[in-house]
Amino acid sequence: MKIVVKYLYVWIMVVLSIMFVSCNFIIGNNPSDPTTEQNNGSDTHFTVTVLSADTAMGDVTGGGVYELGMLVELTATPKRNYSFKCWSDGVGDNPRYINVTSDITYTAEFYDPYNGHDYVDLGLPNGTKWATCNVGAESPEEYGYYFAWGEVVPKKKFTWATYKFMATGYDSWEGITKYTYNAFDNDGNSAIWYDMKGNFIGDNKTILEPEDDAATVYMGGDWKMPIDGDIGELMEYCNWEWTDNYNSTNVAGYIVKSKVNDNHIFLPAAGTYFDSDLNEIGTSGAYWSGSIGDWSCRYASYFYFFEGVIRDYFVVRHVGHTIRGVCHNSK
Fold first, then answer.
1. Rounded-to-10 torsion of CA 97, 98, 104, 108
2. Which residues, 6 or more positions from 100, have their beta carbon under 8 angstroms from its beta carbon?
């Protein structure tokens, strides 16, 4: 009798143990349950997805699965003639570094800095590329449009009275309304950028803003008018050869050849507009820069030439010159 009771007790304990294990399995304490660690916040791996908005323009690296808190480098590599613009969240750093905290996607955006316009790489130290044609021209020998400094609409009458940045009631340099600074020649005697006590009240702007830069407006991308440093490099690192008949077109001007490579640009002698008269066409050329003159607000910087003479200088802002765009993209 005692033996039967003993074995009955053992059998009951075995059954209870099996029931306990079964209950634990049913209520979710199974250590092999794949959702257990995630639900308890213990998953430490996340996916970083890196995409290119246009694989024809550029590639990306840095995507993968990383542990929580890792520092990851994302890189966007533009292809030839293209540039990186920004990431999809607006950040412009490239490469950029992120701390991994969750699954996330970044898309690199690229663009064409030249906006489809042809250019010449003259091997200049700062990487400046010069456009093959003047603004408004379709071939190197065409003159293109004529502009007053800071204007973006071509015209054929160039006076102070027709100048864009001119105060109502003025027809001389004293009425200039934009791009004014405390000039060395004391323009404050009569110019409107000084008050009655001779205090400077102008804007101190000396470089054209994009909306006033004809190269930017007409060519888009990163194109702009050259500044003084660009012109200085063109003179120093290139040989200038006068021709009366560029490529058998009967157009005179300078062939500007790089001292570093075999590339060149042609600058036609397009002349200058004074009032309604186009002067010295075929014998001289005059090209605006995007910089104001360094002596007086009434002037802006430019470079001009005729056979045997090439010089950068400054001239009154209302006259009509041609413009050759430059792009400082380094690709």
1. -20
2. 46, 48, 66, 67, 68, 69, 70, 71, 72
What is the number of helices (H) and of strands (E) in the chain?
4, 18
Domain interval for residue 68: 43-111
Is there a single domain that holds both residue 219 and residue 264?
yes
pLDDT (tens digit, 9 = 90+) per residue, 252-288? 999 999 999 989 999 999 999 999 999 999 999 999 9
Domain shared by 141 and 275, yes or no: yes
SS3 content of the chain, % helix, strand, coil (to 5): 15, 35, 50
Residue pair 216/327 in contact by the 8 Å Cβ criterion: no
89 in Cβ contact with 106 (< 8 Å): yes
| Amino acid residing at 8 | L
The DSSP code for 220 is -
Residues, the chain, total?
A: 331
Reported as a single tens digit per residue, the pLDDT across 30-48 is 333 332 333 334 579 999 9
Provide the pLDDT for residue 24: 42
Contacts of 86 (CB under 8 A, 6+ apart): 92, 109
Q: Is 215:325 a contact under the CB 8 Å cutoff?
A: yes
Q: Which residue has the tokens 């006068």?
A: 242
In a domain, 210, yes or no: yes
